Amino acid sequence: MAAPSDIEDLIGLMARLPGLGPRSARRAVLQLLKKRGPLMAPLAQAMAHVALSARDCTVCGNIGTSDLCPICADPKRDTGEICVVEDVADLWAMERAGVFRGRYHVLGGTLSALDGVRPEDLRIPQLVARVREDGAREVILALNATVDGQTTAHYIADALSGSAAQVSSLGQGVPIGGELDYLDDGTIGAALRARRRF
Question: Rounded to whole angstroms, how far apart are CA atoms 87 and 65?
């Protein structure tokens, strides 16, 4: 016997989340239904609250609960360094590492001729204006090492060529603990090109 239509609707919505297919979504919904009191009800309340309170930071594009995210509102952060990332998940990953004390700029994706994503579809014009208005010393391009990521990085570097900011990118290559035999050719090539004095 199939599940009632409202439960099937919930399964369908859950299946649209990244990393969840129909079977995983069905298992997740069944688990939520088994733990309605301790899990499902608080989850539904938290989701409803976040749906009403979450908003994009007006400066960097991070997600917060006010016009300025906690990072942009923090006076201890270095306003002279801006780390450019594709999306909020990348920003959160950088923050998890705990090594960057500057500010961020979330593009909202990468340029893609195949998908029709142009510079004005992303937050690139806002980045250029922000760098010029704030007088940033350095713009760090922390974009994924994909064709679209590198195309976007080159575009941004060209757009910022008239500013006083130094444009840099994250080092790429062999990860700590990585073995050459397990790396792809592109990673080995990037590591060789990004070599530094020992």
Answer: 17
